[in-house]
Amino acid sequence: MTKHFNSYPILMVGRITGGIATSLLFSGFESWLVSEACDKRSLDKDALGHIFALMWFGNSLVAILAGILGDVTVGFGGLTKIGETAFHVGGFCSPFDLAILMLVVGLLLISFLWEENFGSSQASEASSEQNGLAAQVKEGVQAIAGSRKLMIIMMMVACFEGSMFTFVFNWTPALSNSLSTPAFGMVFASFMMAYMCGSSTFDLLRGRGASATQLAQAAFGLGAAAFLAAGCAFKLSLNVTNLVTIYMGFIVFEFCCGLYFPAVSTIKGQVVPEGIRSTVYNLYRVPMNAIVLVVLLGNISMTTVFTTCFVLLASAGLSIFGLKDARAGKGLGKGDVESYGTATATATAH
Asked: What is the 3-state secondary structure (H, E, C) of the chain?
């Protein structure tokens, strides 16, 4: 709704609420899913990985459809000011109105079709003793600091998703050139198609025995190679061949994103303690956002952007070697559980 107002303070409120919504999007739904699948329905880890693969495949499909429908709604009419107010309708506000409609549909579906859950009964009892926001954050920080695997996952998430959001802000200027005007809508659609291929590949390879850890490692290595190739091409003269190389590097990276997200969702579902799952998922986003802010505020050159993304992905690839136990599906090790504390150890023993 704030997008309709030509007012910076109101738009800033929209960004704050958007940040809260994004945090919920990347924590609450996934936490609900893991608890529903593992505790209520007793599905195994392979079934959970299949669900995540379908989820991220669907995410890509919806993104493509949203882009097409957004273009259609923009074409209905230009941006129109209502009277002497700061309120506007039509034009580029129309896709946001469509988003409001979709959110209402989602709200109704969840309200009538989803059952509430609070994790395992042991986790609920443990978390009920510390239900304040500060206490939950403190508990989450202590759990991450006391667990080698949780620290490794935090580094993986920060490095990969930091490089991904850095890419989101820079792919448009990277492809802008004096030779032609790229069809950015079609470019975005091709990115989402590559993303869908990555999530489908995850599902296929999981069915043939590959672990989520191995597939995440493949995503890190292939993504690093893609940015290395794109960076080398960008450093040269921007002729057609080098532009195609940069574009193909971006396509490969989007494929890696489709491979990464179901893999890391599966790993987190196996390793993160149930009682503090949402808290830990949100804490994982703090260093990721810090990386993106540093890169954006640094106003670095495009070549440096490619180098930064390469270093981040290479770092994520090296860090994942510490998750060998998670590859076997063992979740938290003995030392991790002991360091987390007695209350949550009961909840994670299963």
From this structure: CHHHECCHHHHHHHHHHHHHHHHHHCCHHHHHHHHHHHHHCCCCHHHHHHHHHHHHHHHHHHHHHHHHHHHHHHCCCCCEECCCCCEEECHHHHHHHHHHHHHHHHHHHHHHHCCCCCCCHHHHHHHHCCCCHHHHHHHHHHHHHCCHHHHHHHHHHHHHHHHHHHHHHHHHHHHCCCCCCCCHHHHHHHHHHHHHHHHHHHHHHHHCCCCHHHHHHHHHHHHHHHHHHHHHHHHCCCCHHHHHHHHHHHHHHHHHHHHHHHHHHHHHHHHCCHHHHHHHHHHHHHHHHHHHHHHHHCCCCHHHHHHHHHHHHHHHHHHHHHHHHHHCCCCCCHHHHHHHCHHHHHHHCC
